Amino acid sequence: MRIISRICVAALLAVTAIAGAGAAWAGSGQPSPWQLGFQQSATPVMDDIVWFHNDFILVIITAIVAFVLVLLLIVMVRFNARAHPTPSRTTHNTLIEVLWTMIPVIILLCIAIPSFKFLFVQLNTPPADLTVKVTGKQWFWSYSYPDNGKFEFDSLMLKDDERQARLAKDPKADVPRLLAVDNELVVPVNKVVRVLVTAADVIHSFSVPSFGIKIDAIPGRLNETWFRAEREGVYYGQCSQLCGRDHAFMPIEVRVVSEQAFAAWIEEAKKKYASEDTPTTVAAAIR
């Protein structure tokens, strides 16, 4: 039994180490090499998701795996043909049958109750400070700010030559390949942002892992989600619904700035995007 106990302890330590490594290697708004866990959380909703996955579900499934492993080892050691040559013919143990029915039900209820709570928080949009309309297109995103003026702009992934040109101007710039865009979505920090999502052609999916949001963009339908970013910075996502040839090349870049910087960006965006047919970046207004 000492050997069994040591194996169980080793398994628990291994799972804990992997979970810790995943949290430590997670990026701050974008995926990182050899990442195991979620990206670093930037919203209360994502905080709940990380806790539910890492600190709640992982503990439960680890305990179940350890329990089943102990049972298997006991059977292998104590009830093999050499140690137990005369097999038992006992059947229909009422207590065991009641336990293996009720315990899984209780476990599933313990998982369901907080998951329903978090689902309600995600779907119940609080009073919004800002509304952004997102339109998925093949293969880029269009953004508009209905509360802040009649302007709209497209957001396309930077090509390699465009990335190199931006890096030539600023070698320290964070311009990740296949994630950086020409015109990012800009929102203020610590404000509830309501996101209205639709599509112009086929089904897309608007997903930003650090915000804990993922919602389908469907032609002819308006879906809604929300987030409240608690830290300034740049956060990345991607279309998460197979939408055609260039599905892999329509990233999402969200820049979270201060209220003052956002107000300045809005005024500049009104001038730039309201009068131009082709989008021109106004990121310089907040840098």
Brief summary of the model shown:
The chain is an alpha+beta fold. The protein is built from five helices and ten strands, in the order αααβββαβββββββα. Strands 3-2-1-5-8 form a five-stranded mixed β-sheet, with no helix packed on it. A five-stranded mixed β-sheet has the order 4-10-9-6-7.
Order of helices and strands: HHHEEEHEEEEEEEH
Structural class: alpha+beta
The number of strands is 10
Number of domains: 2
Radius of gyration: 25 Å
Number of helices: 5
CATH superfamily name of the largest domain?
Answer: Cupredoxins -  blue copper proteins
Low-confidence stretches: 3-27, 278-287
Strand order of the largest sheet: 3-2-1-5-8
The oligomeric state is: single chain
Named CATH topology of the largest domain: Immunoglobulin-like
Mean pLDDT: 85
Please tell me what the overall shape is.
Answer: elongated
* Percent in strands: 15-25%
Helix content: 25-40%
Please give the largest β-sheet.
5 strands, mixed
- For the termini, the CA-CA separation is 63 Å
Give the topology.
Elements: H1 2-25, H2 44-78, H3 94-123, E1 130-137, E2 140-144, E3 152-155, H4 160-169, E4 185-188, E5 193-199, E6 204-208, E7 213-217, E8 223-227, E9 233-239, E10 251-257, H5 259-273
Parallel strand pairs: 1-5, 4-10
Antiparallel strand pairs: 1-2, 2-3, 5-8, 6-7, 6-9, 9-10
Helix pairs in contact: 1-2, 2-3
